[in-house]
Specification:
single chain; alpha+beta; nine-stranded antiparallel beta sheet; 19 strands; globular
């Protein structure tokens, strides 16, 4: 049985609907009883959010997965919220189609939870975020009222703004019970060029070169920290390189995945290796097949055990520059190791502090939020101890938005039934 603990709090009851009508009936009853409800998907992103102001019921939607309507000709799919991302991958692959996003921990992550939390995707540099691919959804409001927004076909944009509103609202305005999505074809083939660097400045120049190239980038991420070093050394060991010549922390690893036909791959890989030689990178390797998948999986775990993890969104050049500014803010040393994952050409970044005491974490988060607002960016604290959450709002949204968000909460959930206190401004 899953652990339904949220910031140290446990519910009094767990309810697991298996149909959309069940979800509506249960929520209607809970609303009438004045109970507070925290919606659950696969639980992979439940650490994000402020401490609940109330938590009577865990509303587990993982059993809501019976209906999947895939129309290959339209390149769309409609599925229940409890369907996992990996289940969708397998189903869509039969028609050589795929979701235009990849999320972490896909075997556990559900489509409902991924949409509700607007989960980051390594494919964002090419395809954008999840919000860009949702064409409709069914949502049950806090009082049990079933609603629909958008449609099942791309040309139907009825209610478009409403399903954008629920994407990234973390279930505070309604419970997503099904989602309609646009799809993209599976590429004919992929390869990844791994480049590594001894300094952030050189890595930044390489990232800029990738962004300004004519290459059809599938995914491009720049990693720093112990995982970057570990991935570089693993590559070196596989290729029997001189380990003494390998970099130590700080080091930066950039993975650039390209896709297309065999001819297209050769052209794109040649352009990337040429860039690596020009920058110059400390080293580079071209990876395919299992080696390619393995390095993305390994590097993608950057920050998994961090004490504090920030998700930053800003202009690409600004966001990359924030890595060194955030490190300086910490007084970076062996006592405060950091790591980062930057989406090349997209502007989002995850910055992780591996070890830090609670008081220092509070000061760092508040100063980070101020710094990032100054450059017109936004930040969400995706991971931190509960003691730190007591002192901060994990959503670094500008105070000018507070009244708008409070009015939305009042309109959709006036009794504060759903996720009370968990979203921005503790609404």
């Amino acid at each position: 049985m899953p652990d339904y603990r949220v910031d140290g709090l446990m519910p009094n009851e767990v309810i697991s609907p298996t149909t959309k009508s069940d979800a509506a009936s249960y929520l209607s009853e809970l609303h009438a009883q004045g109970k507070t409800v925290v919606p659950w998907g696969g639980g992979t992103r439940m650490g994000i959010g402020n401490i609940p102001a109330g938590y009577d019921v865990a509303f587990d939607l993982t059993g809501l997965k019976s209906d999947v309507e895939h129309v290959p000709g339209d390149m769309t799919v409609v599925c229940d919220a409890g369907t996992t991302i990996s289940e969708l991958y397998l189903l869509l692959a039969e028609s050589k189609q795929r979701l235009p996003f990849e999320v972490a921990k896909s075997t556990g992550a559900t489509i409902g939870g991924s949409v509700a939390s607007n989960a980051p995707s390594r494919l964002a540099p090419r395809f954008g975020g999840i919000r860009d691919w949702v064409i409709g959804m069914s949502v049950v409001l806090a009082d049990g009222t079933p609603t629909k927004t958008g449609g099942r076909v791309v040309k139907n944009v009825q209610g478009y703004d409403l399903h954008r509103l629920h994407t990234g609202a973390f279930g505070t305005l309604g419970v997503i019970v099904s989602v309609a999505l646009k799809l993209v074809p599976v590429p004919e083939g992929t390869q990844t060029v791994a480049m590594w660097f001894d300094s952030l400045g050189v890595a930044a120049n390489a990232a800029l070169g990738v962004d300004q190239s004519n290459i059809a980038i599938e995914a491009a991420q720049l990693f720093s920290g112990s995982r970057a070093v570990g991935a570089i050394r693993e590559l070196a060991a596989q290729r029997h390189m001189d380990m003494e010549a390998m970099p130590s922390d700080p080091a930066y690893l950039m993975l650039v995945q390209v896709s297309g036909s065999k001819v297209a791959l050769v052209r794109q890989v040649n352009e990337l290796t040429g860039l690596a030689g020009t920058v110059p990178a400390t080293g580079y390797e071209v990876l395919s097949g299992a080696n390619e998948a393995d390095i993305w999986t390994y590097a993608g775990g950057t920050g998994d055990d961090a004490a504090v993890s920030l998700r930053v969104a800003a202009k690409p050049t600004t966001s990359l520059g924030l890595i060194s500014r955030l490190e300086r803010l910490l007084g970076r040393s062996d006592a405060t190791p950091t790591s980062a994952t930057f989406d090349v050409g997209y502007g989002s970044m995850q910055f992780n502090v591996e070890e830090i005491d609670d008081q220092s974490a509070v000061e760092f988060v508040e100063e980070s939020k101020r710094m990032i607002r100054e450059v017109h960016g936004s930040v969400t604290v995706e991971r931190c101890p509960s003691a730190v959450k007591n002192a901060i709002d994990v959503f670094g949204i500008d105070a000018s938005s507070a009244q708008i968000m409070e009015r939305m909460k009042e309109q959709f959930d006036p009794n504060k039934t759903l996720n009370p206190g968990r979203f921005a401004f503790r609404i």
